[in-house]
């Protein structure tokens, strides 16, 4: 059917009390950003629900985007007709007939905000229910758990009919829980961690370390493409490139091999904390899962976390690999994450890294390096890019992809 608007219902926002307006405003902004490219529609974020006037835009494509925006409980495509009972009856029959199969049951549920309309809610239910029974052969009424609920809203600017409800992404609107910095590698785990953090309302900026010529342009493009996969949940995401070559070369030269990964991660944390301080970040997020690799044992975490007092949040810390992969497939990052472009966490990985590094030895080896100078020069080369929904950085038509063939 040619729908005219989409009615959006809020999830956890209903419990936010005096802060509810701020949450709704943020959700409205996120929805507008997510629907970038649909130039004709209008988003109206009211206190009880959101109305998206389509103005001719494709309702199916719009709903695909909406299904990924955090903070939405569910939504329904609707048709607006004038306050004319004959027009309402005609639309109701067409809407129910489109969904009817043999044995279908239905009921009518009317809400009326315009109390000047000629029929009250019960009268409207009776009028439309009887009309549908007479004009959709074989359909029956069922008041509890029917197959179709025809929802009718009588407002001052028209009557709105809907008969389908689709589930939203749930969670909280991104941006209502502060800003976090996600340490985004090219692997499976960190995009999942970013997704889970965003679902709880955190506005995430991606911090990606790259080490040319040891890491390729394809690896950098892959990280940006992973960021694109997360943009539907908010609309746009800031991608922060951190040059890391000099630091890794110095670590490789001056630090004993078993401690290469420990010292590398300590520098990454230092840099991420500095970037967070400059950009208003409140916490560092990463994709560490306890015991999965050498740098993710409790002993390693103690030795690495020593360099920062900023909260480090690990959304996937207690998940096993299969659980993480399931989420990665759900958010469509898995196939991209397994593309074989090495990131800077793997290029200098020692064959036998310390799984239980000592904190005192970590400090001792790191003291051989010009920590402040290395950090300062890396920060001077940071580049920030705003990633929009639908952009492409790594695809079959790009020169980067062609180099692989």
Structure description:
By secondary structure, the chain is of the alpha/beta class. Helix content is 38%, strand content 21%. Strand 10, helix 5 and strand 11 form a beta-alpha-beta unit. The protein is elongated. 41% of the residues are buried. It is found in: Cytoplasm. Pathway: Cofactor biosynthesis; thiamine diphosphate biosynthesis.
Question: What would you say about this model in short?
Answer:
Pfam families: ThiI, ThiI_fer, THUMP. With 405 residues, the protein is α/β, with parallel strands linked by helices.
Describe the secondary-structure layout.
Blueprint: E1 5-10, H1 20-34, E2 42-45, E3 50-53, H2 59-66, E4 72-81, H3 85-99, E5 105-112, H4 121-135, E6 140-141, E7 148-155, E8 158-162, E9 166-170, E10 179-183, H5 189-199, E11 203-210, H6 217-230, E12 236-243, H7 245-254, H8 260-279, E13 283-285, H9 298-305, E14 312-313, H10 321-330, H11 334-337, H12 359-366, H13 371-380, E15 383-388, H14 399-402
Parallel strand pairs: 5-6, 5-7, 10-11, 10-13, 11-12, 13-14
Antiparallel strand pairs: 1-3, 1-4, 2-3, 4-8, 4-9, 7-8, 12-15
Helix pairs in contact: 3-4, 7-8, 8-9, 8-13
């Amino acid at each position: 059917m040619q729908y005219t608007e989409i009615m959006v219902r809020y999830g956890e926002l209903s419990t936010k009390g005096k802060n509810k307006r701020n949450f709704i405003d943020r959700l409205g902004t996120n929805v507008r950003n997510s629907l970038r490219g649909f130039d004709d529609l209008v988003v109206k974020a009211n206190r009880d629900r959101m109305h998206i006037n389509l103005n001719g835009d494709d309702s199916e494509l719009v709903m695909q985007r909406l299904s990924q925006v955090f903070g939405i409980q569910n939504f329904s495509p609707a048709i607006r007709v004038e306050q004319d009972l004959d027009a309402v009856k005609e639309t109701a029959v067409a809407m129910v007939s489109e969904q009817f199969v043999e044995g279908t049951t239905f009921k009518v549920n009317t809400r009326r905000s315009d109390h000047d309309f000629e029929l009250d809610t019960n009268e409207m239910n009776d009028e439309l229910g009887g009309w549908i029974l007479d004009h959709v052969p074989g359909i029956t009424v069922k008041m509890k758990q029917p197959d179709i609920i025809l929802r009718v809203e009588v407002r001052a600017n028209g009557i709105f009919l809907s008969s389908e409800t689709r589930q939203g992404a749930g969670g909280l609107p991104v941006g209502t829980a502060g800003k976090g910095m996600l340490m985004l590698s090219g692997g499976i785990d960190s995009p999942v961690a970013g997704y889970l953090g965003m679902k709880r309302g955190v506005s995430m900026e991606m911090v990606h370390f790259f080490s040319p010529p040891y890491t390729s342009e394809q690896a950098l493009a892959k990280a940006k493409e992973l960021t694109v996969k997360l943009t539907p949940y908010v609309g746009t995401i800031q991608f922060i490139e951190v040059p890391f070559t000099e630091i890794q070369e110095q670590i490789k030269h001056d630090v004993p091999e078993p401690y290469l990964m420990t010292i590398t991660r300590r520098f990454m944390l230092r840099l991420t904390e500095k970037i967070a301080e400059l950009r208003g970040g409140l916490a560092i997020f990463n994709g560490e899962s306890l015991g999965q690799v050498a740098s993710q044992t409790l002993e390693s975490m103690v030795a690495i976390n020593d360099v920062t007092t900023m909260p480090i949040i690990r959304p996937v810390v207690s998940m096993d690999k299969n659980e993480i992969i399931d989420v990665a497939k759900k958010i469509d990052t898995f196939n991209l994450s397994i593309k074989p472009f090495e990131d800077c966490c793997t290029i200098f990985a020692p064959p036998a890294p310390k799984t239980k590094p000592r904190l005192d030895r970590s400090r001792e080896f790191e003291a051989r390096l010009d920590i402040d100078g290395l950090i300062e020069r890396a920060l001077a080369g940071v580049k920030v890019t705003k990633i929009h929904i639908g952009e492409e950085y790594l695809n079959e038509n790009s020169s980067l992809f062609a180099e692989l063939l």
